[in-house]
Amino acid sequence: MLKNTIKIAVRNFLRHKGYSVLNILGLAIGIASSLLILQYVIHELSYDKFHTRLDRIYRVEYDFYKDGEPLFKCATAFPGVGPAAKADFPEVETFTRFLLRYGGGIIRYKDVSIKEDNVFMGEPSLFDVFSYELLEGDPKTVLEKPNTGLIAEDVVEKYFGDEDPIGKRIKFGTNEEYEITGILRSPENSHLKFSFIFSLASAENWGPDMVETLATNWGWYDFFNYLLLKPGTDPEELEAKFPAFVEKHTREGQWERTKLVLQPVQDIHLYSDLIQEARVNGNGTIAYVLLTIALFILVIAWINYINLATARAMERAREVGVRKVVGASRYQLIAQFITESLMLNIVAAIFAIIIFELFQGYFNQLAGKNLDFNLLTAGKFWIALLGLFLTGAFLSGIYPAFVLSSYKPISVLKGRLASSRHGVLLRKTLVVGQFFTSSLLIAGTIIVYQQISFMQGQELGINIEQTLVIDAPGVVASDSVYVQGLNVFKQELLSRPGITDITSSTEVPGTLIYWTNGARRLGQAPETSGILYKVGIDYDYITSFGHKLLAGRAFSETHGTEENTLIINESAMKMLGFGDPESSIGQKVIEGGDTVQVIGVISDYHQEGLKKGHDPIGFRLVPHAQRYYSLKVNTADLKETLAFIEEKYLAVFPENPFNYFFLDEFFNRQYASEIRFAKVFGLFASLAIFVACLGLLGLSAFSANQRAKEISIRKVLGSTIANIFMLLSKDYFLLIILGNLLAVPLVLWGMNQWLKTFAFGITISGWVFLLSTITTLLISLLAVSYQSLKAARSNPVNALRNE
Description:
Layout: H1 2-15, H2 17-45, E1 57-66, E2 69-74, H3 81-88, E3 92-100, E4 105-109, E5 112-116, E6 119-122, H4 126-129, E7 134-136, E8 148-152, H5 156-160, E9 169-172, E10 176-184, E11 196-199, H6 210-214, E12 223-229, H7 235-239, H8 242-249, E13 258-264, H9 265-271, H10 284-311, H11 313-325, H12 330-366, H13 379-405, H14 409-413, H15 421-457, E14 467-471, H16 479-494, E15 499-505, E16 516-521, E17 530-537, H17 541-544, E18 549-552, E19 565-569, H18 570-575, H19 581-584, E20 588-591, E21 594-602, E22 617-621, E23 628-633, H20 638-652, E24 660-662, H21 663-668, H22 672-706, H23 708-716, H24 721-755, H25 766-792, H26 796-800
Parallel strand pairs: 6-11, 8-10, 17-22, 19-21
Antiparallel strand pairs: 1-2, 1-12, 1-13, 3-6, 3-12, 4-5, 4-9, 7-10, 8-11, 9-10, 14-23, 14-24, 15-23, 16-17, 16-20, 18-21, 19-22, 20-21
Helix pairs in contact: 1-12, 2-10, 2-12, 2-22, 10-13, 10-15, 10-22, 11-13, 12-13, 15-22, 15-24, 15-25, 16-20, 22-25, 24-25
């Protein structure tokens, strides 16, 4: 019986090759798209899952308030939080802390000198909290002593080649030296990514009793604090005790404005976007949106199968009638059609795996992921594939099976069978659903690209064009030697035509400002202070970047010492309570432990792009800032200019690698996740409408075939090709327009929610929906035009000869 059923199914596929190809292609693309996105989402959801005590690990978030509103929310907190929480709360089993060496530094071993970014300081308790695999070394002692450290497994070869790094000594920066005591495996799917971890005990080199001081410090908020809670602890109940905890350990005026929050580590990668994150996190919303898109494409493919199968019902009616007459039961017919659906889905699944293998590298590159696993080798893959296969086969096969098996043989064989009104209505509804989904994706893609274009084209308030930025040396013999070398370096570069400016600073546009202090007007109470983000600059910075001075002046060597002066932006002016730029000049400000005088006010500019609002920024004079050198260069002979700059840099600052980047490219990297999202969104929007058009192509062919006699009669009576074309096409176009109209409210709601995540965003215009509708109509026109024109140009004699 089964053999006969399969044989009939194969004959049907071969007899209707076009129908079979359309269905297989649509289903294969749908399944492959789902698998590609599933691999991405599984990777995103896997972050930090390797920690055995994950459900009990929490990071302490630090929020700072002013007038009841948060000035900032920070991933780091005070170093004293961990020790105090362990001492005050029996619910806390243990804690561990990390300090990120912001900006990294130069790591040297023998003749190897490399700039590393993921450099941390930590303590032995990290292995009591986390489950990072220590490949070599004793977890209880590797970070116990000063000047010891761990190296990540994937970094070892860069410095040591085939040598065993254990016991070797490396240099960090100018004066720090560490002995490698262990090798750590640092997985990619972790919100903490390490290159090196130096012992926090090394802080004793910063000053006497510094290690003990860190255990009680509640002012320096650059430390990641992780708490391991005891089993059964309710984190919400523990967090409710934090206000009294903060009041106990902070000074008066600070505790009222400080809030500590427990963040589950398992949620950090997808749902945390605080300042001072250890690395750029993912986006849970984007992950699930992509998963939804994959489902949309699958549903569109399944709808194609249902539409084409029910549209072919008239053709298969006589087959059903004859089989019923010779004794086939309804259940046998249902089994026949379900078997056909299963077989077609099996072939589609095989092609889907081939497509998946061919395109997973491209998709991972598009999504910005360097995945270290292949979904085909994972058990979850085959479970997901089986689930998609069975779901698709059942959903796409069950309705056609029941429709086709319900025909009465007497009516069929007498030729009295007419198309079901309900069947036609269902097909039209499904077509509307397909293009409703396609319109959602196309309009969403247009809006995402609009927002990216807006951010990249917006005036920043500064000039970053033709700006080459060089990492300042991390290794210098002494401060005096560095200052002398910097002056020589500047003179050498400015002597070359094509280099017009060079300025040094602690930050450049596009970087996160870590140097912060509380700031308030002189004479006002401490609780009125706000957070001032500070940038150290030399005398040429303001002019070189084209900052607009609203009042006062920039730093100048002609004014003598400027150590206690400050330049602020408009947002800082408002935070400090100054009425306007002119009245700000000469005012005294207490920031940190210094009393400084405002000498200039500049207009607000975008330091971190348009995703963030304007922060209160203050500029202090640091004449020989040792972080970045920014050069204005003529790009006409760039290769020769770069070679010249590198030669002079290495001559003045030996032992330092020459690292550089172009500021406009660096600045736009802030939008990398949005650009990737737009590309992925656009790719799957294109696939969705392609699969929908495959269905239209099949439907238009069957529609033209069913109406062949009507078309022939109309041609005999004088209808033109254009009239026939419109007759066959207009119904589809009306359905497509309806699908687009229904999508408008959902697009408006969804994309406005997304745009709210940007401090500066576009307003959605009506032309987006008009463009989306026109796009779907034009693409659909291409899909149906061939069959419509073929029917319109056919010879009416062929259809009417038997009438």
